[in-house]
Amino acid sequence: MVVYFDGKYVDSSEAKVSVFDHGLLYGDGIFEGIRIYGGNVYRLDDHLERFEMSARAIMLTLPLTRAQLAEAVCETCRRNNLNDGYIRLVVTRGVGDLGLAPWSCANPTTFVIASKITLYPQEYYDNGLAIVTVPTRRIAPDALPPTVKSLNYLNNILAKIEAKQAGALEAIMLNAQGYVAECTADNVFVVQKGEIITPAASAGALKGITRATVFDIAKELGIPMREADLTRYDVWCADECFLTGTGAEVIPVVKLDGRVIGAGKPGPVTARVLGSFRKRVLVEGTRI
Length: 288
Ligand code: PXG
Prior knowledge:
Layout: E1 2-5, E2 8-11, H1 22-26, E3 29-37, E4 40-41, H2 44-57, H3 66-79, E5 85-92, E6 109-115, H4 122-127, E7 129-133, H5 154-165, E8 171-174, E9 180-183, E10 187-192, E11 195-198, H6 209-221, E12 225-227, H7 232-236, E13 240-245, E14 249-256, E15 259-260, H8 268-283, E16 286-287
Parallel strand pairs: 7-8, 7-14, 11-12
Antiparallel strand pairs: 1-2, 1-6, 3-4, 3-5, 4-16, 5-6, 8-9, 10-11, 10-13, 13-14, 14-15
Helix pairs in contact: 6-8
Bound molecules: 3-[O-phosphonopyridoxyl]--amino-benzoic acid (PXG).
3-[O-phosphonopyridoxyl]--amino-benzoic acid binds next to α6 and β13.
């Protein structure tokens, strides 16, 4: 496998980060998880825009322009003959002294991995996921903005472990106020009386690229959609529930904490959104 690493394309065995890299020492860095479908990088520009915002928010000067980042992403796919898969773009603060001070890091470290993706088995798209609410809260927006896709994922990792211990593949994380924020790597949506509702970024949700696509799909299909605070009650009493993410795409949820949601099977609005999403990914995107 070929990896882009600080301006060079190297074999993955040579793509090694220093033990003094602040991305490793402190989680001081940012990333994007991007999909490529049939040779089209899905919404690359949107991913790079979010990436630039994440960089700006943590005062990290990106070493590459947007065009250069796009080229690194596409060229890494080309060098691996990858037409369908998953791309991980990472920029860390770089190699520095021991100690938090980011100004000890002379140059950011940049790498791009283009690889295969492990998807949820088809049965979950057919029958829906059973998820749980976990005790670990989403980090508060006033502590670390959830809109920053940073290398600090410990909250979500603890939530993922708690989900596994409860026998679930995904988990709802609440924010400090007890409202639904999102799942460990997916945004959450409910459908109630024909309307799609999802938590706002201010409630702790990442502004997902797939989430943004659902807003576009809802507009196109004439389905009302809005952001609102959601409690677990809203999920229990929803007609439908689904999650979105770069990895999961659009996946139905039929149970929360053992309670059946709606009819207990994937609902018609979720099916329409998923159908539209699957069509979009084949035509939208940057050709590598
Ligand atoms: N919330 C969080 C916390 C995420 O990390 C999403 C929502 C969905 O956003 P997108 O832009 O993907 O629609 C994410 C995305 C992985 C992996 O390796 C994680 C994500 C995306 C792709 C792969 O587990 N997180």
